[in-house]
Amino acid sequence: VWKHLGGVIRLPKVWLQALIVVCAYVGSNGVDDYSLYAVQAYGMDAVEGARVSTLSAWVRPFAAVGAGWLADRVSASLVSALCFAAMLGSYAWLAIVTPQPSMLWFLYMNVLVTCAAIFGLRGVYFALFQEAAVPIAATGTAVGLVSVIGYTPDIFVNLVAGWSLDRTPGVEGHQHFFAFLMASSAVGLLAALAFRRSPPRGTLAAWRF
After folding, report:
1. Which residue from 29, 110, 36, 121 is spatially nearest to 83, judged by alpha carbons?
2. Residue 64 backbone dihedrals phi, psi, to 5 degrees
3. Could you read off the pLDDT of 121-174 as tens digits, one per residue?
4. How many angstroms from the chain centroid is the CA of residue 182?
């Protein structure tokens, strides 16, 4: 590991991939807020609110397989950018538009779009290693580094959600949290676009692992 770590941390695409995983995982953790949002913003009871979040479990396998299939035909970085763009649009709408209990289709549409994008990302973000041209001998080190950074949202996303709702209880607090998810999606989109434009091996074309 130590033999390859010095080379891996000098690959710009590895850091961009880590940022992509962070932003994707922020969205994945954000799914937990949908049940409470459905109750407080749309007047559902606890059981109905739980059903809204359950929708993500049905979307997950189809989104991951579909994104993988598409990535094989175009590229994982393009699929990642499209998923982040979908998340950005959906979260922006949730953050800005005042929810109306009579417009349940709006809630379900956003849950569907965001969950499809999130689990599509989770289905392809490790496929980015092939595009990054990380040497096979250093792949394990690169995966470890990306994973350590990429799964940090487990530490802070729920804290941000709790802080948003404690500071401004009710719908407004949820909208602040959705604005945070929107900002994360924008960063992820920029990272995916930068990943697509950067050279395969960055400045380490001659690096020997």
Report:
1. 121
2. -65, -45
3. 999 988 888 888 777 777 788 888 899 999 999 999 999 999 999 999 999 999
4. 10
Q: Which residues, 6 or more positions from 172, have their beta carbon under 8 angstroms from its beta carbon?
A: none
Q: How many other C-beta atoms lie within 10 A of the C-beta of residue 51?
A: 12
5's tokens: 């770590």
Contacts of 54 (CB under 8 A, 6+ apart): none
The answer to whether the Cα torsion of 198, 202, 206, 209 is positive or negative is: negative
Q: How far apart are CA 63 and CA 66, in angstroms?
A: 5
Rounded distance, CA 131 to CA 125, Å?
Answer: 11
Residue type, 9: I
What span, in angstroms and rounded, lies between the C-alpha atoms of 209 and 196?
A: 23
